Amino acid sequence: EAGVAQSPRYKIIEKRQSVAFWCNPISGHATLYWYQQILGQGPKLLIQFQNNGVVDDSQLPKDRFSAERLKGVDSTLKIQPAKLEDSAVYLCASSLDPGPNSPLHFGNGTRLTVT
Amino acid sequence: DAKTTQPNSMESNEEEPVHLPCNHSTISGTDYIHWYRQLPSQGPEYVIHGLTSNVNNRMASLAIAEDRKSSTLILHRATLRDAAVYYCILRDVLAGGTSYGKLTFGQGTILTVHP
């Protein structure tokens, strides 16, 4: 099966600019996650979707980050305006359902550098 | 979220078995024990998971203590491709819609494999 696709692979922007990341999950996967991974740390969950509804966005900085999953398939994560501390790898993952027996499948991420 | 404790790093020689320990003394009865690994410049990859009984798959074995307060991931014959960060994570079942089975990553164990 095709894996989770993310684009772009790399992005360099200046602070205060905006940026968007795109994710195409594995076909049929109802649950989609966005994680942020800062260098040297484990991934941190930003937002979790079940189909096209948000079920957990407790760690999403909502003053600057937004995400949507229209039609319950593809998803975009946006940062506006970006700060230096947003430099990280943004990982998208999907699973069949949110249950503990459904493993997460991760994409290879988008590496964002904010200068 | 229940926490896990792992050694920061471990080393192994190629073709030898590797035992990666994880302590989770505050585990609840509904927490599943999950292991993921992350190779350099890639997203995390699912390895194995279990609830109470030991589990085997093509990648590894998971040994769970009888009191479930600790577990061990076993790589039977390490290869250079197994060099990665290994994460031990407790994943809750859906609990009235509060946790949605999310994965909360810690720092993990950096495994180095020597030829």
Give an overview in words.
The complex is a heterodimer of chains A (115) and B (115). Helices cover 0% and strands 48% of the residues of chain A. Chain A has strands at 5-7, 10-13, 19-24, 31-37, 44-50, 53-56, 65-68, 75-79, 88-95, 105-106, 110-114. In chain A, a hairpin with a 2-residue loop joins strand 5 and strand 6. A five-stranded mixed sheet of chain B has the order 1-9-8-3-4, with no helix packed on it. A four-stranded antiparallel sheet of chain B has the order 2-7-6-5, with no helix packed on it. Classes of the chains: A mainly beta (115), B mainly beta (115).
Considering the chains and any ligands shown, give keywords for the structure.
heterodimer, A: 115 residues, mainly beta, 7-stranded mixed β-sheet, B: 115 residues, 5-stranded mixed β-sheet, 4-stranded antiparallel β-sheet, 9 strands, globular
SSE order and pairing:
The complex is a heterodimer of chains A (115) and B (115).
Chain A: E1 5-7, E2 10-13, E3 19-24, E4 31-37, E5 44-50, E6 53-56, E7 65-68, E8 75-79, E9 88-95, E10 105-106, E11 110-114
Chain B: E1 9-13, E2 18-23, E3 31-38, E4 45-50, E5 55-56, E6 61-64, E7 70-75, E8 84-92, E9 109-114
Parallel strand pairs in B: 1-9
Antiparallel strand pairs in B: 2-7, 3-4, 3-8, 5-6, 6-7, 8-9
Tell me the helix content of chain A.
under 10%
Low-confidence stretches of chain A: none
What's the mean pLDDT score of chain B? 91
- Average pLDDT of chain A works out at 95
Order of helices and strands of chain A: EEEEEEEEEEE
The oligomeric state is heterodimer
How would you characterize the largest beta sheet of chain B? 5 strands, mixed
The end-to-end span of chain B amounts to 38 Å
- N-to-C SSE string of chain B, H for helix and E for strand: EEEEEEEEE
C-alpha-based Rg of chain B, rounded? 14 Å
Most residues in contact, chain pair and counts: A-B, 26 and 27 residues
Number of helices of chain B: 0
Q: Which sequence of strands runs across the widest sheet of chain B?
A: 1-9-8-3-4
The count of DSSP E runs of length 2 or more, i.e. the number of strands of chain B, is 9
Q: So what's the overall shape of chain B?
A: globular
Note the overall shape of chain A. globular
- What is the total tally of β strands of chain A? 11
Radius of gyration of chain A: 13 Å
How much of the sequence lies in strands of chain A comes to over 45%
What characterizes the major β-sheet of chain A?
7 strands, mixed
> Runs of chain B with pLDDT <50, length 5+?
none
